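Bug report

Summary: structure tokens for Cytidylate kinase differ between web form and batch submission.
Environment: batch mode, default settings.
Steps: 1) Submit the sequence below via batch. 2) Compare with the web form result.

Sequence submitted:
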Amino acid sequence: MNKPLQIALDGPAGAGKSTIAKTLAKKLGYVYIDTGAIYRAVTYRALQDGVGLEDGPMLAEMIDKMDLRLVPSENGQRVYDGTEEVTDVIRTSEVTNNVSFVARQPEVRAALMDLQRDLASKGGIVMDGRDIGTHVLPGADLKVFMTATVEERARRRHEENVSKGLPSDLEQLQLEIALRDKRDSEREVAPLRQADDAHYLDTTELSIDGVVEAIEHLMKQVIER
């Protein structure tokens, strides 16, 4: 697999996109681009600065003043806003429950579009999100739409929170994920949906290795065309 591909992984919250994207990128020697972390960092900054979460113009103005960076490390990707590392604080429930409001603002998506496309321009990347194959990288070499049942996605998020020592309620997570699905699917700008040329992959019963192998098989098909 010598050709550096643009790989787009889309799907709802908790589908395992980030875990798979990181694992796949490491195995291939590709760069992992976590677009969700970018939107979370913007949401966190808005909450800290008191900027309205649905005030698109003000959010775009705030983004223009931010210095967002994704920095690889031995412990995974670290997220910075200027000199402040926000890797962990952007994963709190407060940010999780509000990021949909920020992400659906047209001005926000426009402000972050160039950054995401520039990061992916040379290929050899795995980018995950909710509208990568449909909006951010419509010409990606390989598009995969990952999903799983709400119950399974909540269980995964619960275990992740517990492993990090964060407070977590499984039933509440199920409600929050179902609501997040609804918000993401119904937003006017770049809603969550499967791209026409994306491969559908239900990960409910699959291990991490199983999902990675399935995507590698799809990559092989792309390269052999």
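Above is the batch result. After comparison, the two runs are identical; trailing whitespace caused the diff. Strands lie at 6-10, 31-34, 68-71, 78-81, 84-85, 125-129, 142-147, 199-202. The first strand starts at residue 6 and ends at 10.
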